[in-house]
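User: I'm writing a tutorial on reading structure tokens. Could you give me a worked example: one chain, its sequence, then its tokens, then a sentence or two explaining what the tokens reveal?
Assistant: Sure. Here is the example chain.
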Amino acid sequence: MANKIIKGVAVSLAVYTAFFTGVVMYYPDKPEKMDWEDRQDFNKVQIEKISDSGLENGISHKEILTMLGGPDISEAKMSGADKIQVMYYRTQHKRADGITSQDECTPLLFKNDKLVALGEKAEKQFENEY
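And here are its predicted structure tokens:
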């Protein structure tokens, strides 16, 4: 009798583990479906990963959109023949006013659809150089 109970528990645990693993692997969170607090934390973690890996990898605009979803704020302009875009992703809550402002975001700067800077450097470069 005890042997049947142990087998039943083991089988149930195996089925639960397989189900949980399947859900986590095949149904990842999408940024656009997260509430603002989860999305903010998600953005911060993903941007830190980008920062840690360095910018020399030439991450594309499309890859960032796939990774983070659409930005909270975006600006673009032309500088000669170059397309310059800065996308702001919310990473820190400052005011409970229902509005996401630039000072609550981390900027990512793209030149011709390639990531060239992020953080404070990206914002200064966008304002001063382009």
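What the tokens reveal: The chain is about 45% helix and 20% strand. Helices lie at 2-26, 36-53, 61-68, 120-128.
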